[in-house]
Amino acid sequence: MKCDKCKGGMKIKTVKMFGESVKAKVCSRCGYRLVNIDEAIKLQEKLLPKIHVERRVIKLGDSSAITIPKQLKTFFAPGEKVTLDFRPKDMEIKIRKAE
Ligand SMILES: [Zn+2]
Question: What is the Å distance from ligand 1's center to 8 Cα?
Answer without folding.
Answer: 5
